[in-house]
Structures are given as structure tokens and as C-alpha cells.
């Protein structure tokens, strides 16, 4: 009987032969067939790697290897330590070397045939655990710092891969491209034997094309750049190996392979859109499964467990049974079942109160409600469906007719290899979703303009984003500064969200002594410009006579400098928001001025969702530019091409009446009208993508500010650069370039957009990174701090101290506790740990913590106290304004605390927590999702009546909250759930975030 592996090998050999004959279309189809049959887990492999999750996985492919290859492997193993692992893929079983390699701490994969270097590298990457993958030629000599350099080569978040440097080690002539000098520069993967790549990017791109042997690195680089606009592949001169170079017949064969590879690259360039590369198999599970049988009939147990027998030898299994049947009956039944399986593979429990608090052995849980008896479906079929990445979003509940779901539980750390796309939901979740869809139907399914009568009325026909009643609660402004202000309403509102601001033009208060500083913005008024300038000069003179500092904030373009020249020279300090104007002022007026970047005000243009109404289900792309569409024909053509993808057009700068709809009849149905700033901020939280174009009536600063608002709302941003504007992109976007996807081709833009619709986890990841950058570097606080410095005020708010609290009953997890704390990038933090058990080796536990962590407090609280008592104790002993709960057996990303603190910029909050669902592992750049269709990018304030679904292991709170809502000291379970429910009952401010 032919196995799937035999079929896969047959297809692979046929594909390679067709490729050599340059029959590329046929070869590509055969490669697709191979990918459908291949199962990498069935390839023989021996795993002697160290336990843990390394940073980099080094993959070495062997073919006709010599002792020189063993030397290369040994050298890398010596460097590996805890940060690296070595994976050896043997393409032609090296019997003579096996006895040497098997002694090393490596994963040895023994391929059944010579798969060639490309597919062998893919196989090695499949088993990799590191976030970075390095490929090294087996006959090379790595430098002494190779592992460290491999990690550093992609440490910049904007770098997705790097190629290294090869020094001549012996024979052969070295081509110039092997050594590009001592400086980092843009490059391609033209040294496949010395390169690094981010694992997530490698898999997203499809890995190496398995057919290629010659120019395969170049082809991979092209695909990676297509999927990662704005990201770089670099030459990293510190990543060094020494290597001989081919001569004679070897050199001739290499050039022939490269010639074939070049022709194949041209063929693939023409077929990328219609023939995407077959996806790489993805490793779903690392260890095994925990099966939970809820209320099975006793008579069905034999059959249910019998179906596991054929699979139990391949992976670990734990079986938990929740039943109301008598203990004697179940025990007798389990005794019979146990004899059929090795004790080490199956674990039996009876549990009449299974819940999320039940500690499970494996991170992958399948729960079966009731009896599961069907002759046509076996457990092996279930696992095949789970692992088959060709089946996306399979609705397994309809297949089995049972409520099945994928769930991670407290006490069981999520495996770094988990990457399920499928959703297994209980019946109650399905019902809730249907009810949510019914509520959504109360609102328009689209935002099409349905006006029948054209008139001169201004189009403010967009009531969907107008929930003015909900505002972000806050108790006080973060700055004590008192500002007298003359300028635009927009800047007034932004400043007033941070400090006390009085608009002097409308104020009856004429005494400057009530203020700390005068801030005046360059405002143009066609009717009152002369009176306005006079008023500003008058106020400046009053502040000067009182010895109060004055600041002129120039926000216009350079052409208006003559209008404000007298004011610019008379004020004490000058801020300039326009880079060109800054240079002109310096040249013409001799005043340096403080150049400020464009900003957002987090309490106004923030990422928090205010709308109490249900979300819309189909809002895809928002283009803020109806005026630009009317003015520029290229924009009209662009938008027309994007109509099938769900684009909607709004306008926030100009007002238009309904008669202007007749000028764009093809776009009329997608124009949603004029939006004010509040509506625009809310709309951004509903759309997947915000679109901007280079042809616009807005100034560069105005457009950049709109982009910042979109990024602050966690909306992905697309920027379309028309051909004549491509050269100005870098100047316009500056530091935002890595977070904005730039396109010059509308087809590529549409293709990328459809990808983000299919992969909401990718959209969320991009949005989170961009939000973090904006909230760190583009907030008004940054400019206001400059004001404080100039006026010599010390009221600059300090970043709050955060106390990390951990309660544990397992002193053996001390290393995890230390690693979680040290990993946090947030600077002002302390660690408080409670050992919640008696009789443990407390002195050793305490010594370990205090020897490795500087700012730590350790307590032993006996097991007679519950976790609520321990949490209350630690929080009251803490010195931070906020506390962050860290579980002892979970892993937390680098920015876990940092992201929470950034959210406090947007609102005065008591508790911030994460939704129980999507979990992003920043350390490994992986995300675990239960249901991609439920992924929302925006964050939501929890109002009374909303259901709170915060994850108990990951939330963050204000210390003062404990005075009113302490943790329960009497409950033995669900302490965190009780705490959150009581906090909501006390009307505390809770934020549900979707961040990493």
C-alpha cells in the first residue's frame, strides 16, 4: 500500500526533473502536489537539543559531508548556550559521521532522499524553535561570535533578514559580492550559506522555493519584500564565516544551476499573482493533547478511548473525564482501559468540576461534550484536520455535531509552537455570536450614500459615528501648568487635555499673573487678521512686563512668515512645526527656533473605542479625501479601482453640499459625507485600513497628522504614492515609514488589503507596533515637555513606577519569575513575590531572587492563605502607583508593562486587561488565535452592562483601587473574576485592550 510519504517523494522527484528540463509550469504543479502529501513530522529525526526556547535556530544541511562539517557543527554548538540551537538536516545519510554527530546537542533530521538545499532548509525551519533562523553551509568555519552576530543582525524591528560576509578560507577565487566591506547596507540573500531571517517572515513568505538550487536566496528576498513593504534586508558585516570557493567542474556546475535559477525567477515573477507559492507545513503542536470528555456515557468510554490507540504512540496524550457517574463504576472502567495503553502515555483523571483552573499537562485541549461515537470519524482524522494547513477555518463543529473548542488553561503555559487558525467553540459561544449579528443588523450593513434629492445642504449625513455622550473619564490633567492661549480651537483642545488652558481672546481675565506662560499659535483670519495680530502683540507685552515667558508656535507653511515676522521676533521662544519654515526663519530672521514634530493628543486622538453601539461588520477601507478625489483625476481612478474592495470616502477638512455628488457619479454610493474630528476618530476605530494618497490639498503636516490619528486608533495605514511623488515619500513620512505601507501599484495595494482581511492577526500585529511607536514618540506631551524646560518648570510628570507581583506555590519556577521581570523594557519597576506554601526551601528561593534582581521583595505566606490574601499583601507592600500581575508559569513579552503604561496616556484608568482570546507572543513573534473572525484591533472601555472578559493572568491596576475593591480573601478559586466583577460594580474605569 502506497503511503503519503511515498507519494510525496514521487511527486518531488518528478518536480525536480521537470525543473532541470526547464519545464517550469509542470514542475510547479508537481511541487504543489508534493506539498499536499508531505508530512515533515514523519521524517526520521533525533532530538538532543537543550530544553527551552532559544532566540536563534542555526540550520546546517549536509550532503556528502566530511569531518569538516562536524567541525562546523561542533563550533556552533560551543557558542550556542541558551540563546541558540543547532539543527542538522542530512540530505544523504552520512553513516561515517553519524557516530560523531549523534553525540552533539543537536536535532538531527535524516531525510529519506536528497531533497536539495532549499527544501532541506525548509524542513529544518519547520522544527526550529527560535524567532530567528540562520542558515550556514556545512563546510564553512563560523567566526567565534557568529551566534551573537546572528541575533544582532535582525535586532532592528525594520530588518526582516540579513546576509553575512564570507572570507576566503582556502582554494578558489572569491567574487566581490562575498565581502561588501565594513558597513551595513541594503542587500539581497545572495549568500544562502550565511544568512539570517525572522522565522515568522520566512513562513509568511512560503520559505525557499523547493525547486530551486541557484538564486534561491534572491527569489526568497523578492517575495519577502513584496509582503513586508518598508522593511529591509541588509548586509551585516559582523556575520562572518570562512569558506573555500568552487573551481573547475564544480564552478561550471554552479553557474549552470544559477542560469536555470535565473530563468525560473523570471517565470515566477510573471505568475506570482495567479500561482502563489505553496504554503509551508506549519507545526501545530509541540508536545501533545489533553482530551476532556464531559459527561460521556459509561458504555461509550471503551469506544472513545479505543479510537486514540492508533495515535497514542506518536505524541503525548492526557485524558480527563468529567462525569457524575459513581466513582466505583468509572474506576472499574478505567482499569480496563489502562491495560490497553502504556502508563507513560495516558493519564486518567475524574473531575466533576472541570474548569479553566484545572491544571492540564498539555497546552492543546480538545473538549468533547457528551458521547462521541461515530464509525466514520476517528481521533486520527481530527488530528489530520488540525494539522492540515490546506484547510483554513474549518468548521469542525458541523463535522462532528458536537461542541468542540480549542482552549488554553490557567496553569498550563501556552506552547510557542501553537498557531491554530481553526476555531472550536462551544454551543453557547455560537449562540452569543448569532445574537451579536442580530444586533448589528439594526444598523446599516454598509455606509452607502442613499440620498435621492440633491440640494445645497452640507452633507453631514453620517449619524453612525456620533455618540457624543460617551467621553473618556479622567480625574485630573497630568500637568499643573497654567497656559494663556491664543490660537486655533484644535490646538486649544489638545493642550487643554493636558493642562489648564484659557483662551485669552474670549477671557475677561486681563491679568497675566494668573498664568505661567503665554502660548500663541500662528492663526490666519481673512477678516480679522490685523485685529488678531494687535491683540497678540498686546498680550505679549503684558506677559513681558510681568516677567512671564511667551512662546510663539508657528504651524503654517513658510510663505506666511512675512505675515508673522514681527511676532516671531518679539516672542521669547519660537516653536516651528514645519521643517521648511524652520530653515527659512533661521535664514531670513536669524532665529533658530525649536523644531517640533507633528503630534497627536492621546486623550483626544486615542486608541480607545468610545462607541457604545455594536461594531460594524463590513467596514474595510476609509479614504479621507473627497476634496482630493474631486481635484485630482488620478485619485478618482485609484478609488474607482478599489471599489470592489470596500472603500468608503469621507471628508474632514472641507464641507461639501449634496450637489457635488453629481461630479463623481461612479463614486456617489460610497461617499459617507463630511465628518468632524470626533466622528473621524470614531470612524477610524471601525475601519480596517485608512488610505492616504500623495496628491492632496492638505499640507504635509496636516496629512501626517491624519496618519498619526489613524495609527493611534490602531488602524492600518496604506499610502499610495503617484509616480511623480515617489521621491518625496521619505521626507513626508520620516520615522513613520516602517509603520505605513507605501504602494505605487494599485493591484499590489488591493492584493495586500485582501491579505489583511484574511489574516486579522497580521493586521493586529502591524497596528500594535505602529500604535506603540506613535504613543511613545508622537504625543503632544513630548512638545509640552520642551515648553516646561524653556519656562523652567518642574511639573513634568514622571512615568509611574510599576510593581510586578507574582504569587507562586512552586519555588522551582523561580527562573521563570526572574526571566519575566528582567525581560520587561519598562525602566521604573520593582518585583514583589509571595511564596504561597509552607515548608518549602524559602531561604534558597529568596536568595536566588535577591541575588539576580536588584529591586525585589520576597515573602512567605502559608498555604492556609488564599491567592487573594497574597495579592492584597503584595500590592499593599508595593511602592508603585500601578501593579502588574505576572503569573509564575506564563511568559510575558518585552513590552507587556510598557504597553499598559502607554495606555494611561489616553485616559485615567483603574484597571487595564487583555481579552481572553488572541495572545501575541512578542518574544517569539507568534500569535495564538481561537477565532480570527472575532479579532478586533481597537480597544474598548468597559461600560456598565458590558460583559467583562479579561484574562486573569494578565492585568494591570492602580494601587489605590485596593482601598475600595480588594481581592477576596475567602474564595479558593476564580479570585480574579470576582475582583473584576466587583470593580465594575463600583464603576471603576476598566479598559479592555487588544495589544500584545
Largest sheet: 10 strands, mixed
Q: Helical residue percent?
A: 25-40%
Low-pLDDT residue spans: 282-287, 310-314, 341-359, 372-429, 929-933
Please give the radius of gyration in angstroms.
Answer: 31 Å
Distance between the termini: 48 Å
Tally of helical runs = 31
Mean pLDDT: 78
Structural class: alpha/beta
Number of strands: 38
Beta-strand share of residues:
15-25%
Question: In words, what does this structure look like?
Answer:
The chain is of the alpha/beta class and 996 residues long. Helix content is 34%, strand content 19%. It has 31 helices and 38 strands. Strands 1, 2, 3, 4, 5, 6, 7, 8, 9 and 10 form a ten-stranded mixed β-sheet that branches. Strands 22-36-38-33-37-32-29-30-31 form a nine-stranded mixed β-sheet, sandwiched between helices. Strand 12 (316-322), helix 11 and strand 13 (348-350) form a beta-alpha-beta unit. Helix 1 packs antiparallel against helix 2. The chain starts with a helix and ends with a strand.
Please write out the topology.
Layout: H1 4-20, H2 24-37, E1 44-47, E2 56-62, H3 67-80, E3 84-90, H4 95-101, E4 106-110, H5 116-126, E5 132-137, E6 141-142, H6 146-153, E7 159-168, E8 185-186, E9 194-198, H7 199-205, H8 216-227, E10 232-243, H9 248-269, E11 288-294, H10 301-306, E12 316-322, H11 327-338, E13 348-350, E14 364-369, H12 379-387, H13 396-400, E15 406-407, H14 427-440, E16 482-486, H15 489-496, E17 500-503, E18 517-521, H16 529-545, E19 550-554, H17 561-570, E20 573-576, H18 579-589, E21 594-595, E22 608-609, E23 621-624, H19 626-631, H20 633-642, E24 647-651, E25 671-674, H21 677-684, E26 689-693, H22 700-712, E27 716-720, H23 729-733, E28 741-743, H24 746-758, H25 760-777, H26 780-790, E29 802-808, H27 814-823, E30 829-835, H28 842-852, E31 856-860, H29 867-877, E32 882-885, H30 896-903, E33 911-915, E34 919-921, E35 926-928, E36 939-942, E37 950-958, H31 975-985, E38 990-993
Helix pairs in contact: 1-2, 7-8
